[in-house]
C-alpha cells in the first residue's frame, strides 16, 4: 500500500527564483536604457557648447549629425553614462554603504544643472591662463561632489572615471579622431579631468536615484 501511495507534490523552488532574476534583469535593462538616453542628450548639448567655442574640433566630414556632433560621440557617452549610473548603486550595495544623502529628484536636477554650468564655464568663461581655469573647475567639481554626494565610493569612482576617460581622450586625439585647441596637458586641455569627474558624480547620482525608485516600486536594486 505504501508503494502505491502517491507521493505529495513538492512546490517548485525555481519559480520565485526565476521571477526574481527576471525582475532584477528588467530593472537593470530599464535603468540602463534611461541612463543611456540621458547621457546621449547631455552629450549633444554639452558637445555643442564646446564646438561653438572651438574648444574641440572634428574633421569636416564627420560633422554631419544634429548639433554638429560627430556621430559616435552621443552613443559612446550614452553607454558610459549607463555603465556609470549602474555602477554607483552597485558599489554602494557591495560596500554596505547605502547612499542616503539628499536622495530626491530635486537634488539630482540641481546636480545636473551645476554640471552643465561647470561645462559651460569651461567653454565660455575666459581666464588669464589655463592653470587658473583648471584650478577653478577642479574646485567647482569637488564642490559638486561635496554638495550632492559626500560618499567615499562616489569620490573614488569619480577619480577613476576621470583618469580612464582622460586616458581614452588622449588616445583618440593622438590617433587623429579629433583635437583640442590649445592643448596644455599632452594632447588635451588640463581641465578635462575635472569635467569627467563632475560628469561621473552627476550620472552616479542619477543612477542612485533611479535605483531608489526601483526599490520603492518593489524591485531590488543592484
Automatic annotation (TrEMBL):
The entry's keywords: Cholesterol metabolism, Endoplasmic reticulum, Lipid metabolism, Lipid-binding, Membrane, Steroid metabolism, Sterol metabolism, Transmembrane, Transmembrane helix
Lipid metabolism as UniProt keyword: yes
Keyword match Disulfide bond: no
Membrane topology, record value: Multi-pass membrane protein
InterPro entries: INSIG_fam
Highest rank taxon of the organism: Eukaryota
Protein's cellular compartments: Endoplasmic reticulum membrane
GO biological process, one term: SREBP signaling pathway
Entry function: Mediates feedback control of cholesterol synthesis.
A GO molecular-function descriptor: lipid binding
Transmembrane segments: 28-49, 131-148, 155-174, 186-206
Protein family (similarity comment): Belongs to the INSIG family.
GO cellular component entries: SREBP-SCAP-Insig complex
Pfam families given in the database record: INSIG
Protein name (database record): Insulin-induced gene protein
Amino acid at each position: 500500500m505504501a508503494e502505491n501511495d502517491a507521493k505529495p507534490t513538492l512546490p517548485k523552488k525555481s519559480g520565485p527564483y526565476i521571477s526574481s532574476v527576471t525582475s532584477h534583469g528588467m530593472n537593470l535593462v530599464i535603468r540602463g536604457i534611461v541612463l543611456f538616453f540621458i547621457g546621449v542628450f547631455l552629450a549633444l548639448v554639452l558637445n555643442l557648447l564646446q564646438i561653438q567655442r572651438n574648444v574641440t574640433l572634428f574633421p569636416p566630414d564627420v560633422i554631419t549629425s544634429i548639433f554638429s556632433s560627430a556621430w559616435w560621440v552621443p552613443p559612446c557617452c550614452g553607454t558610459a553614462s549607463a555603465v556609470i549610473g549602474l555602477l554607483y548603486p552597485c558599489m554602494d550595495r557591495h560596500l554596505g554603504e547605502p547612499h542616503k544623502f539628499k536622495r530626491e529628484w530635486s537634488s539630482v536636477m540641481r546636480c545636473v544643472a551645476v554640471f552643465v554650468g561647470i561645462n559651460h564655464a569651461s567653454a565660455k568663461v575666459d581666464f588669464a591662463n589655463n592653470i587658473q581655469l583648471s584650478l577653478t573647475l577642479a574646485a567647482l567639481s569637488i564642490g559638486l561632489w561635496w554638495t550632492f554626494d559626500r560618499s567615499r565610493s562616489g569620490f573614488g569612482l569619480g577619480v577613476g572615471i576621470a583618469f580612464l576617460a582622460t586616458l581614452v581622450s588622449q588616445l583618440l586625439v593622438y590617433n587623429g579622431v579629433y583635437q583640442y585647441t590649445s592643448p596644455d596637458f599632452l594632447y588635451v586641455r588640463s581641465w578635462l579631468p575635472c569635467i569627467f569627474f563632475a560628469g561621473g558624480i552627476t550620472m552616479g547620482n542619477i543612477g542612485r536615484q533611479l535605483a531608489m525608485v526601483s526599490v520603492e516600486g518593489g524591485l531590488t536594486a543592484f
